[in-house]
Amino acid sequence: MNRQLKFFEAIREATDQAMERDPAVYIVGLGVPDPKGIFGTTLGLQEKYGTTRVQDMPLSENAMTGVALGSALVGMRPIITHQRVDFALVAMEQMVNQAAKWHYMFGGKAKVPMVVRMIIGRGWGQGPQHSQSLQAWFAHIPGLKVVMPTTAHDAKGLLAAAIEDNNPVVFIEHRWLHNISDEVPEEYYTVPLGSARVMREGNDVTIVGTSYMALEAVRAAERLRADDVSAEVIDLRTIRPWDVETVLGSVRKTGRLVVTDTASAAFGVSAEIVATVLECEFASMKTAPVRIALPDHPCPTSPALSNHYYPRADHIVRGVQRMMGIEPTTDMPAMTPHQKLDVPDPSFKGPF
Amino acid sequence: MPQLFDSQLHFKLYKEMLRIRIVENSIAEHYGEQEMRCPVHLSIGQEAAEAGACAALERRDYVLSGHRSHGHYLAKGGNLKAMMAEIYGKATGCAGGKGGSMHLVDIDAGFLGAAPIVGSTIPIAAGVAFASQMRDEDRVVMVFLGDGATETGVFYESVNFAALKNLPIVFLVENNFYSVYSPMDVRQKGDHRIIDIARAHGVEAHQADGNDLDLVYQISSKAVNKARAGGGPSLLEFITYRWREHCGHGYDNDIGYRTEAEFLSWKERDPVAAYERKLIARGLATQHEMDLMANELKQEAEEAIAYAKQGPWPELDTLSSQVYAN
Lengths: 352, 326
What we know:
- The structure holds 2 protein chains of 2 kinds.
- By secondary structure, chain A is of the alpha/beta class.
- Helices cover 35% and strands 19% of the residues of chain A.
- Chain A is built from 13 helices and 14 strands.
- Helix content of chain B is 43%, strand content 11%.
- The interface between A and B is large, with 42 and 44 residues.
């Protein structure tokens, strides 16, 4: 078997190799050089590259995003990290009004090559302000790119591609993916932004997943075999620009679409994908599309409530069964009394 | 650094200041034609602070600015014709017509950009200074902001960061007492608040008459030299006054937020007239020489406006281009 690496190690390796290749790359973020190193993703980098290229920062997310932008204007390639996407919200002004616009509004004279890493997650009492999944906010803005890797292989290749890109790239990592392993080549490589990956081929239904939900989609596809349903699972990998052709091609084949996203269904990425597919491939559709995503309210903290907040493979299976007229074999939610839904499921191992 | 108060320098400073006045007046004269189809924020009345501060910089240094940026762009050496064409929305504009008056840029001149979200270019300027420092470049960054921008969160954040990293940056505050129509006393407490904020962060700060061209130049030069020598950031607050309305070419002293008397008292402190009196009194220029210069500058401004008017509109295919850089 080829070398296995966990997702967080792949992030670190991509950062390390990018810094080695290009002296313009630097990383700044709250806790970057601390003993925990952003969930392990930045451990050892300051020892290797010094305190100038690997920096902690004041709790000034908006200004520091501007600082990263300003340095990018004159040739640096900053990576700025936010330990939760929720903290990045105070930097929206710099992200949306400034970073996203400087290339366009100066007629192409300015370039802003920067990566903004943000971490999302679920479970363990993260509550209303540590649990949001706001990719749609960023994807709504022309000028920003938005990347959400699922596997360790893609985490490395997409981060390297994001650092090489000459635009502001929002790079969103799901905490429940950080400790999942995959085959990861040792050498430097990139995975092109804007290309989805077919994780399972199938003929009856297309399930498009983002980030962690792509893994739940794989699990759902496996369960659906019992119903003689052949599901195709697409890991979107990049939210903006998203791989329209791969999704449309799959839907032309299957005629059915489920989109599962880590964020709210309302006004979200799943809504955008469904709308685009219906606009372009309405004639191919055998049934109405289904969205499996977060409900339309904030996330509660208590596990008694939050266990019912996040969608899982069960919900995807049920959605497919419903659209195909298959009688469900279990009641929803399929939970045993001792099942812990607020921690990562150890059965997700990879490789993918 | 050029020798202070030699006659050539005096004349150069005067010319830069007068040029801003004449260009802005020309924009005001033509604005009513409705061909400049974007908001303009004229800096008439504030030219000494702009010309004096930029004269302290080298060409390789960088400037960033906010919504009222024409004077900074010109004083830093930005191309006048490209600025006018940008205001007229032409392909020949400095941003190809995508930016307008509020988004001037001239990379070659070191004018990296302006943006009208008040306060937003302050941290960006700090980032440029951060890059200059990381690469050990001999470049100083000057960011222009107004009194209103000192009320934003990013101002505090940026001053803190600049102090923390000892960045080669000058925060240049033109205090003209009004944020649009809102006077200081509904927004800030105390007459020294702005410099006190900088000093509280360990940043050297000075408050001075922004209509005294020589004084602005002197103080700015010290701050720029200090930054260049590795001495870190400074904040300079220059007190001045905007003559025209916040946005547009007219006067608005009659609408009730300030008085005609206040405006007239500031008009008596006209930085351009004061400097002309000084040049004549010291025998550094004659009225005739100054008239000749004014005529030349007026001609240059009108030529730029003619150039802008004659320029082609941007091609439609640029509408959706340059969203992403290659």
